[in-house]
From TrEMBL:
The chain crosses the membrane at residues 12-30, 50-67, 79-99, 141-160, 195-214, 226-252, 272-293, 305-333, 339-363. The lineage of its organism: Bacteria, Pseudomonadati, Pseudomonadota, Alphaproteobacteria, Acetobacterales. InterPro entries: UCP028704_OpgC. Keywords: Membrane, Transmembrane, Transmembrane helix. It comes from Roseomonas fluvialis. This is Membrane protein.
Amino acid sequence: MLALIRQDRDLRVDIVRGFALWAIFVNHTPGNWLGYITPRNYTLADATEAFVMLAGYAAGLAYGIVMDRQGWFFAASRVMGRVFTLYVAHIFLLVLFTAQVGFSAERLDAAAYLDELHLDPFATEPYRALLEALLLRYQPSFLNILPLYIVVLAMFALAMPLMRRPWLMLALSVGLWVCARAFDLTLPSWRGEDWFFNPLAWQLLFFIGCAIGYRPPGGAALSVPWRPWAGALCWLLLAAGAAMTVLIYFQWDFAEASLPAFAPFLAAIDKASLHPMRLLTMLALTYLIAHGIPRDAAWMRTRPALLLALLGQQALPVFCAGIGLSFAARLALEFSDGWAVQAVVNLVGAALLVGLAVLTAWYGAEKRAVRRPPPPLQAPATGDSR
């Protein structure tokens, strides 16, 4: 299994992404005790911010090389091929998740599942709901991350040449983020609800990742040097964010009663349009991890770290499987949420995610092996042999 992990890349990226995928599975399982130790409980950023930013990093690194070698048009076509793959994966996940929840709601006489997960349109207007889902204008709960990824990746296909001028690319991205927040700009949806993740705002995290990941030929990658005062400021920001997270999610009544002037600011820290505090939190975490963890740290070659790296390297299938497994885990925990069921749900869920990552990594390795041309046959030597 460990031989399937590509260790010739920055394992910090893969490990963080693998941890984010595991956290998404845990956080999407109501009643899971492990949800209390995931980052969403002590930072203003969570696994989604990490997932989007690292997706941008991977895109800038991989497709930037293709663009520099074979031109923008070829690289953009590769990006749009990936967009199509993501779209197919989203539709497959939508069908599977809808069938899973609908069957459970019928068998367990729990129609509340449909309402809670915003799948009730399939009961009232199934044909219209399917059409709007295909157009990405209707997104049930838990099925809104891939549409965000699809849109920002399509935007990236057009903006790829700007990676050669990273500060201009970031300035334009910041401008779009500001306009999206200031003027409430978003993409249209079916029932008048805004996108849960507004792509016009969240693209900023993606393009920050692109700027960091791109390696210009003959030049240096974009980087922010370490400064002790900047590190201290990041830790201060994270500490303030932890306090605000506790107030928002665990002590809201206290915040409203005792901090009436500050409570409106806390209430305005939205996720849909990437509030500045969530953005700054993610940037602070990135700065500290990039400078605080060496690329060749020995612990990243240990088995637990490499398992997370394996999940991160097979992000798409692991993410899709995690969504389906999270609802199955929810059903199990609603039957019994004792420690034994908690242990089984989390161990089995993690084992299945790792098993799927192993399978997809093995299949990918086999495909790459088939593509390699066989070595040329050597002509037999002629002449006398003595």
